[in-house]
């Protein structure tokens, strides 16, 4: 499929999910007890050693895919350590040589389950200055609402991580639902259209080339 022929999101859900408030409110008060997977604990421990030794801003690029966005964010934030996290080794292994470390920024790519990684980061008292969630899997079928990050049990930990959270998607309902979840958590935030002369992820470039638009939210969390 060419970059200029990216399919639009197809969903049986015309607006915010009817059970979104109920789901989010449940997760905001429940304790998330799922055990931490050993491979994510190991990966986190290695990265945490770098984070604790680093004297500068920490930035998270969650669902980083092939890591192009991570490298670009490192260039945008040259004084920071940018950590790109994705559950897929297949995607991370595609990290092209052109994105590799340069003098314009430093970053780490790590394979981990974010359901575990975010909780470990909160427990370790990480305080990222920025947290990017750029084009996560939208799970557009209504029955999969709890697979979306704002509908998942781990959502409160995204809030607890703090920093400037930025979410982008080519599906406006995803961002509007995320904004509603943040509102329920006490952080109302507007949803706006987003465009730039430069795409920083492969998906962003593909969507724009095929005429799709991006929506985003940006919120400062404590």
UniProtKB/TrEMBL annotation:
InterPro entries: SAM-dependent_MTases_sf, tRNA_(Gua-N-7)_MeTrfase_Trmb. It comes from the Bacteria. It catalyses: guanosine(46) in tRNA + S-adenosyl-L-methionine = N(7)-methylguanosine(46) in tRNA + S-adenosyl-L-homocysteine. Its EC number is 2.1.1.33. One of its GO terms (molecular function) is tRNA (guanine(46)-N7)-methyltransferase activity. Keywords: Methyltransferase, S-adenosyl-L-methionine, Transferase, tRNA processing. Pfam families: Methyltransf_4. Catalyzes the formation of N(7)-methylguanine at position 46 (m7G46) in tRNA. This is tRNA (guanine(46)-N(7))-methyltransferase. It comes from Pseudoalteromonas holothuriae. The lineage of its organism: Bacteria, Pseudomonadati, Pseudomonadota, Gammaproteobacteria, Alteromonadales.
